[in-house]
Amino acid sequence: MYALVEIQGKQYKAEEGALLKVDRLKAEEGDVLQFDSVLMLNDGDNPRLGKPYIAGAAVKGVLEEHGRDKKLTVLKFKRRKNYSRKYGHRQAYSLLRVKEITG
Question: What whole-number distance in Å separates Cα of residue 33 and Cα of residue 30?
């Protein structure tokens, strides 16, 4: 069984026991979180689609840790104009362990 769930405006495929890497959440490590914005449920035989969400469906998970991704280097350059800019970016994320899918 899996569900498509919307977390902070992005859609993720959640299965029980799976580890989701989502944008950083404002919660502490070890907190139990519940997301009610389930777009689709599939239990093998009959997939259920929401319009836009499925009423009564929820995904529960435990926030395991916060972290930051590898650094991405962004380079802007215009030839013959003496213009170049170089900077980096590290995206913050949270690891979420899916415990239960109800619906």
Answer: 9
Q: What share of the chain is helix, strand, coil (3-state, %, to 5)?
A: 0, 65, 35
Domain extent listing, the chain? 2-102
Q: Which three-class secondary structure state does DSSP give residue 57?
A: coil
- Number of separate helices (H) and strands (E) present in the chain: 0, 10
Write down the residue that tokens 């213009």 correspond to. Answer: 83
Task: Provide the whole-model pTM.
Answer: 0.84
β-pairing verdict for 47-49 and 38-42: antiparallel
Q: Average pLDDT in the 13-30 region?
A: 96
CB-based contacts of 8: which residues, under 8 Å, 6+ apart?
22, 23, 25
